[in-house]
Structure formats: C-alpha cells, structure tokens
Design goal:
By secondary structure, this protein is of the alpha/beta class. It has 8 helices and 19 strands. The structure holds flavin-adenine dinucleotide.
C-alpha cells in the first residue's frame, strides 16, 4: 500500500487526506500546529466561480465545486455550513457594467451560469439604490473553512489516517538514487513515506526548499472586518465588479475591493484587502477604513452597524496567481499542493481529487493533460524576491 505523508492540516492538506484515504492510500498528516490554524482560519470561505475567467483555474474551480458538493453529502452540509447561496457581482458605474458584461460573456462560453440582473435590489433589497446592474452567479457557494478542514481530516482519520500535530518538517529523506523515502522533523524523527504532499500553504515556499524542490510561494496580506451579529440582511456574497481586477493584479501595493457576506452566526464579513508586505502583522487602520467605506457604498445600512473585530491573514501567492499542484520531477515522490492564494478554500476539494490522481498513478507528470499549467516546473526562472 502506498504511504503518503501530507505536510499541512489546513483546508488543502485535509482535503488531500480525505481524497487519498477514499482511494485506499495510507496517510499520515503532519502539522507544526493545529488543524486549520494557518491561513485556513483567516479567510472567508467563499467557493467562487464568479471571479474566474476561462482557463485552468476556472476548470479547477468547477471540479472543486462538484467535489465540495460530494464532500457536503459525505459530511452533512450543515456541519460545515456549506451553502449554495450564490454570488452577486455589482457594477458601480456604467463603464464597470460594460466590463462586467464582457467578463460574464466569456465565462458563459466556458460553461458558467451568469445571469444579468437589471436591478440588483430585486435580489438584495438592502443594496444602495441606483446601481446600474449586476451579474448573478447561482453556482457560488460558501463554507466555514475551519469546520470544513476539521471535518475532512476527521473523515480521513476514521478511515485509518493518523495526524501528528506539533511536528515541524525540516527536510526530505532520500534514497541513494535521490528518490524520496520520508521526511525528517525538527525533533529528529524520520517518518517513512513513498510520497510527500507539500500542502503547507503560505509556507509552501519554505517547505519546498526544505524538501529540495523549491517553488515560489509568497505571502499576500488581507484584512477582514467582522460586524456584530445581525438578522439576515445580506442574502448572497455580494461584491463589487472591481474585485476581479484586484484578484488578478500582481501589484505589490495595496488593493481593496470589498466582498460582503452574511454568516450563519449573523455576523457580516467584509473582506478583503490585498498587499504584499511580507508577514507584517501590523493592523492597518487606513485599510480597515477603506474596506468599511466600500462596504457602506454597497450596503448603506452598514454605516449604523458596529464592527466586532478585524482579523488578517497571508494568502499563499504564486507570481502567476495559479496554485502549484503536481509531482516535482526534481525530487521523485514530492507532490506540491500549495499556492492557492485567495481561492484555497474554494479550490481545496478539487485539489484533493487531483492529488489523489497523482498519488495513485491515475495521472502522472507526463499525463497531466489539462492540469499541466499547474505543474511546478513552470517556474523555470529565478523566484521573486521574498516580500
Ligand atoms: C483575508 C483572506 C480572505 C480569504 N478568503 C478566501 C475565500 O473567501 N475563499 C477562498 O477560497 N480562499 C480565501 N482565502 C485564501 C485561503 O484562506 C487560503 O488559500 C487557504 O486557506 C490555504 O489553505 P492551505 O491549506 O493551503 O494553507 P494553510 O491553511 O495555511 O495550511 C498550511 C498548514 O501548513 C502548516 N505548516 C507550515 N509549515 C510547516 C512545516 N514546516 N511543518 C509542518 N507543518 C507546516 C501550517 O501550520 C498550516 O497549518 C482568504 C485568505 C485571506 C488571507
């Protein structure tokens, strides 16, 4: 039986563990900390197709959406707060509406359901009056990321996987021919493995170097505002049409375009900024103010609502905005599953399926097919400066 060690018990590592044990692979999950304690506990839980243009990431989002629905059936959607609530992308100017309409046309050609909405208040009565139009994406979903990571890991443990917390991976152990035979940990232990999955999120770059197969994963900071609990006033995930440009931008400077969504607990989440400032944890009041102002422009009632808290996290960012998924030919036995940036929750379930294919040999580096763009050898040149 193949033995896989998965480094990282975030949403991606946990989804990989569930997918691999489903296929009969012996799995050991290791994390230096607790399940879901990395960026998984710092995101919002959007599972979006709406923000992705035609291409490999959209294909992965579609695969992942189907996989999330299967996971929901397995675990019970309410346990992980999986909701098919749909997204509403709102234009705030005539020019914005034209750009949004062009983007949606391309998505429809790729199979996405994108419905033009003349009056956004019909779907979201508390939106500001007079907004020129919107596109409704009924396929967008939401999940509670930490609950989902814990439930996926629990499903794997029930099938015989083991989980070692407090385990910091420091190196790969290799055979005489260079192929991998396990990992070494900070406390000097060796855990034997046929395959090692690098699911260490924003630390995927550091871990990949430790494994001898470096890939450029960098932190991209984001703040999220949390309101006091309210009655259900926001029905969909609602965001400004500018958001798509912000997500795809490689600018290191601050970018903000807010996403507003209600949660089961009644709080409204207002996310999220994007900036490349390394792992700087300082609270930025100007960022909080900007996000709040943008949210109030969409939903004026928010001006009278208290903020409960603000949190921040570091998205695992690759320079080309695509995750790294697949075997690394430099160290046979290493498979990467990291660098999902601001879409790791949404893309986790599909990533688990792909990693399952690679680990069982159903797919190889050579037969990656439509997923070849995600392979690690696309980073031929020197990696970007670590900021
Ligand atoms: C503000 C914000 C909003 C976001 N909103 C969304 C959203 O709405 N939808 C969406 O899809 N995504 C969103 N994201 C992105 C999403 O949160 C991430 O892409 C996702 O959580 C990455 O999951 P992961 O499992 O790869 O990484 P992580 O959750 O960070 O897990 C990696 C794990 O690896 C462990 N690890 C690291 N190094 C080692 C080591 N040496 N040894 C052992 N273990 C190690 C860490 O302890 C950690 O637990 C958001 C992110 C931010 C910051």
């Amino acid at each position: 039986m193949t033995r896989a060690v998965i480094i990282g018990a975030g949403i991606v590592g946990s989804a990989c563990a569930e997918a691999l044990t489903r296929r009969g692979v012996e799995v050991v999950v290791v994390d230096r900390s607790a399940v879901g304690s990395g960026t998984t506990s710092r995101g919002e839980g959007n599972i979006l197709v709406s923000d992705k243009g035609p291409g490999t990431e959209l294909s992965l989002a579609e695969l992942s959406r189907r996989a999330w629905l299967e996971v929901g059936e397995l675990i019970g959607p309410s346990l992980i707060e999986l909701e098919e609530k749909g997204g509403l992308v709102v234009a705030q100017s005539r020019a914005g509406l034209e750009a949004l309409a062009r983007f949606a046309t391309g998505q429809r050609a790729a199979g996405v359901t994108a419905l033009d909405v003349g009056d956004p208040q019909v779907l979201e009565p508390r939106l500001a009056a007079g907004l020129p139009g919107a596109v409704h994406y009924p396929e967008d979903m939401q999940v509670q990321p930490v609950l989902a990571a814990a439930a996926l890991l629990a499903a794997a443990l029930e099938r015989g996987a083991t989980f070692r917390t407090g385990t910091d991976v420091t190196a790969a152990v290799r055979d005489g021919d260079g192929s991998l035979s396990g990992i070494r940990t900070a406390d000097g232990q060796v855990i034997e493995a046929d395959v090692v999955v690098n699911a260490s999120g924003t630390w995927g770059g550091e871990v990949s170097e430790r494994l001898g197969a470096p890939v450029p994963v960098l932190p991209r900071r984001g703040f999220v505002l949390v309101t006091e609990p309210l009655p259900p006033l926001v029905r969909h995930k609602v965001y400004s049409a500018d958001y798509v440009d912000n997500v795809g931008s490689s600018d290191a400077g601050l970018e903000t375009s807010c996403v507003v969504e209600g949660t089961r607990g009644g709080t409204v989440l207002i996310g999220a900024s994007r900036e490349r400032v390394g792992f700087d944890t300082t609270l930025s009041v100007p960022v909080v103010e900007t996000l709040a102002r943008q949210a109030v422009a969409l939903f004026p009632f928010l001006a009278r609502v208290n903020l409960l808290r603000v949190y921040r996290g570091f998205r695992p960012y690759c320079p080309d905005h695509l995750p790294v998924i697949g075997p690394d030919p430099r160290v046979p036995g290493v498979i990467h599953a990291c660098g999902h940036e601001g879409a790791g929750i949404g893309l986790a379930a599909g990533t688990g399926r792909l990693v399952g294919d690679y680990v069982t040999g159903a797919r190889t580096h050579e037969s990656a097919g439509e997923w070849a763009e995600l392979l690690p050898d696309r980073f031929a040149g020197p990696s970007e400066q670590q900021v």
